[in-house]
Specification:
The chain is mainly α. The protein has helices at 29-45, 56-67, 71-80, 113-123, and strands at residues 13-15, 88-90. The protein has a two-stranded parallel sheet with strand order 1-2. It starts with 12 loop residues before the first strand and ends with a helix. The relative contact order is 0.15.
Amino acid sequence: MARKKSFKPAYENFPVSKFKGISFRFEDDVYECAWLLLRLDDAKGNGTNTIHRHTVYGLAREFASLADIPEAHVLGEFERRELPLRASVEFDDKPVSSISPSPRTRDGAEGSAEVIQARAIRARP
């Protein structure tokens, strides 16, 4: 009688924080790139019913292109660390978006998109 294979989901998520410690050009540069791509993916999906996410493999390609590093070098490091190349890169804990303007506005700057974005960047792990 054949043994049942263990169930493995077709798509798995890979938390962005797992890229910390992988560096090529500067400390945690792969993590910084992955975090930026997640934010851009969310921004592109605003107002739509779809959410796009890069795979670990896709991140390697994007990072190699941006950092001007051979793709094979980045993929080799990812494989050496046994990262799941087909997994989707995702935030560690998906935060609930609830941005409300501050009651203390000074010339409209307190609740402006630039201020909110700057706060989000400073608050990142």
